[in-house]
Queue: 2 jobs
Job 1
Amino acid sequence: MRNSRLIVAASFAVLAVTASGCSGSTPGGNSTSGNGRGPITFATGKDTTGKLQGLLDQWNKAHPSEKVTLVELSENADDQRNAMVQNFQAKSSRFDVVNSDVVWTAEFAARHWIQSLDGSIDTSGLLPATVATATYNGKLYAAPFTSDGGLLYYRKDLVARAPRTWAALKIDCAIAKQHKMGCYAGQFAQYEGLTVNVSEAIDSAGGSILKNSGKKVTVDSPQAKVGLDFLVNGFKQGYIPSEAITYQEEDARRAFQQGHLLFMRNWPYVYNLAQAQGKDSVVQNKFAVAPLPGPNGPGSSTLGGHNLALSSYSKHPKSAIDWMKFMESANIQRKLLTQLSNAPVVASLYDDPKLQQQVPYLATLKQSILSAKTRPVTPVYNEVTLAIEKNSYAALQGKKSVDQALKDMAADIKRAAADN
Amino acid sequence: MTAVTQPVQAGRSARGERRRGRAGRGDSRLALWLIAPTVVALALVIGYPVVRALWQSTFSDSITGNSRFIGIGNYRQALTGPDSSDFWAAFRFTSLFAVVTLFLEVAIGMAMALIMNRAFRGRALLRTSVLVPWAIPTAVTAVLWRWMLQPEGVVNYLISHKVLWTGSEWPARWAIVVADTWKTAPFIGLLLLAGLQIIPDELYESARVDGASAWKRFVTITLPLVRPALLVAVLFRLLDALRLYDLPAILTHGANGTTSLSILVVQASIQQTKYSLGSALSTLTFLYIFIVAFFFVKVLGTNVVRTQQRAVS
């Protein structure tokens, strides 16, 4: 009897593990009306601030027959993309507007999953780099919604002025040594963050990965070598601490907040967290932000952010476009910055003195975003980023020479582009 | 299984008394009807996906939607193409992981089972607490270990050595092996415990009277008699290990040579949206696991069904 109970328990355990595949679905009911107007849904990553609904309510109040419903997806970017891809593949009208990461937009457009917005959206007041991420084959396919740029966080209590060049940064590393802390870190684990950091280094040195809408591979250039060398030598010479090879954004943030780093490359979201009082951070009021350094002066950041894209299967595209315009209005963009800490795409907001006072890093962020380069705009972005991650990671670990890594990277990217 | 066969037998004896002559044909027809729902369900949930994946894997992937029939092209690409090194690396890692964890888990699980099989105070408590790691979802296990294995984490503190667990190949592989062993050894222990409990105490007593040492008793009594349960445990575990996904996906993101076959399938079919290549990769993974299972059932004589029946009766 005892045996049988054990067996039953064991088989339930097996069942529980194997059955954990299926999951339910959520609503999104559409009442079709012929004129392209009606309620719409907005699929986006989890809103951890809880403030997004408030902005939507503002629209819903004014447009009771064209209400927008928030569909919150996972917090994880890959899962968000999977959910969107699955809906597009099923030609489902469940998502009218998706909040597409800047690097997905080209693929969605190439697959005809999202509609061209050429002529519907006025992009004149927007930051040009954000418009570039929403453009594929010369046509606008999405409405830039939020932006993002990398910043150099530095300990202003230890260094008087932020380094503007890599050489100056290396000289300041002596200070880090005196204080027994690591000098510089970014995100160097093998994941999307590594692509961001590597393309920043390559762009800062005047190189590039892809050109001509992803048709020409340019990563095996002397400039790219200078860029990757900066990171590889960091690990070799120790100005990047060895544990940084495991860092994602949060690991770097933790190390900086605990006082283990003199310089850190990270996104603007870190600012408020590091400034918060409490045991979590020893750096309140002891740090400041600056544009990323480069080989001979300020470097260039990789552009982050999201675009609003209109599903090809939406039944109410007219309402959706009106709503996108509303979300791009200066009024909403201002609230995105102050309430959700999202960098706006409307250029004029960055020079608003009131906002600059409210958001201390805004002026630096503007510099970062204005000099920012987009990651490769290509429908095969996932393969391209995998090639960048894999080969540069091997170089950082010292398993491949920088030359070899760039050569392999170029070959892998060429093959990915040729496949399609 | 027993639930299906018993009603059939009951039906046979009741009908058999009424009309003995045509019993054979009527019975088989009844049996057919009774198993038909199961066969249909199996065809739908197992047959269809397998056939569909096979069919899909013979087409090319295309962003523009113009995919065409390319026969074994995707298989050739996976096994001998420019990216084939990824497949073989994943194949080697998955196999290595399966063998190493199996060995560790069976050894530790056996030790756990032997201890749990003894009569002592607090045995129920021990049995319950041993199962806690197994009860924790693998995803949570992965996060837990990732936390502990951080450069400034508790593991490095305890060994007072700064190992970058997720920063290079072998430490990353060991991290996954350790996390998996921690989680699954209790499960093996539990399956083996069920096997141990059907061994009659008299055997041990008479062996003891004959002067057999503890080791001798283990090798000549315990091992042969626990063999059926052991083979089932090993088979379950092996199949599980070969489709390893969640631990490396969360712990290392497949970096540092910890990309398993399943991660490769997901990378191709979901992240790169190459469904046909993904189907080919998953078919290859399926074949690999199938061959291993076939070997176990046919060559080693693992009989999952009989062992369960014996345990139930």
Job 2
Amino acid sequence: MTGQPNPRSRQDQFGRKINRTHSPLLAHLLPWATILFGSLVPLMPVIAPGPILPPFGFMLMVAWRLSRPGLLPSWAGFPLGLVDDLFSGQPFGSGILLFSLTMLALEVLEERFPWRGFWQDWITAAVVISAYLISAAVLSGANPGLHHMLLILPQIALSILLFPILARVIAWLDALRLTRIRSLG
Amino acid sequence: MARPSSIRTTSYSKKAQYSAFTAYLVAALGALIGGGLLILSLMKPDAFADVRERAADVASPVGRAGAAARVGGQDFFSAIGGYFSAGRQNVRLTREIEIARVRLAEAQALKQENNRLRDLLGLTHGDVKPVAAGRLIGSTSASTRRFAYVSAGASDGVRPGMPVLSPRGLIGRVLETGRSSARVLLLSDSESMVPVRRASDNVVAFAEGQGDGTVRLRLVNLGINPLKKGDVFVTSGAGGLYRPGIAVAVADEIIRDGAIARLLSNPAATDYVLIEPVWAQQARAIVAGAPIADAEAEQNSDAAAPTP
């Protein structure tokens, strides 16, 4: 009866419990940091001949929003879109507008369809990403022609296919976000 | 289906209800402000250039490190590939160098003749000296607009309007400058328009970007389309931004009023790019017979004024 206690009783998926606690800084900063990092992708050494890469900043925001509702405040689209505008090449303001509208749209969608699941999240993300890319192309300041719209079809397809992988990474980062780290006292 | 119990609902607490309401209000306000800024920047594209360039300056070390890695990586793989094709390449190069020697002699003769004709016309000649050299450190690869960032800025003497060249030809022109980085409008952007002519004769056209790495050549003189697949186009010098004779594109697909052309210098494959001064001042100097050094001084004084 007085044997060793189960060693796993003092730890859970976020690490050991004794002398360790969650870090509020890490828990609150990590989502913002990853999204801002995604917005810096245009500075990656890929000199693309056309719009090929998915909009990482936007997709990371949607992924965080879908996996942890309530973690990002509903006004998060404003600051995140502002930073995205500085690097994306879109006219200034298009990111602010589209990111903000997306956050509001996701709130409305969640009110209407409150369930969660892999397929529902993927379909939601697919709709939102397609809408974002099409509106971004229309608002890019170039003459919107049929040619332009055809140009973004591969990008839309790639972004939608990439989303589950990105959501998986976000789930992993979410666990990292809540890891217990050594605390004094 | 029943509503899941995990749904976030605001409680009966007035405070919680107010804070949720305020968050929505701020979000809607943010969207409105974004819309306003967007309209402003669509009407006046350079309205926020300052903020953008400062941000690019801050973040450009990331891109610079990445650019070095990209070029280094290419070298690494081509070095490995080289071992496999060394023998074949040696034979081919030996053959090529024999032909090249003959061509070189011919070229020298042509150069002499060229110099003689220039003297006859009273034109001074000198190579255009580049303003700065830099690396392409990134591009807007997720947007339908085609911009690139280059690692040279106002502190190197770069000004808006200056052409950006790779060893293979024209890449684009500088649009906005920061202190240590600049934003380049690539030729394939749909707002880019370059006056060109066919290298073999004087068929003039406009090269208009299509946003996907190709340009559309629109002939100035309409009529029977004289273009053929494989025609090389160079800048004509009209408009005053680009000096004449820089390679631009090669016609790939003939259409009714011109051709779809592939760009000769693929920005993705370039290491260093050169930024040259705006051509108009050089041209004026050549016509006036003044030495090039004066033209550069004049251009630096001009650069403070906004270029059209």
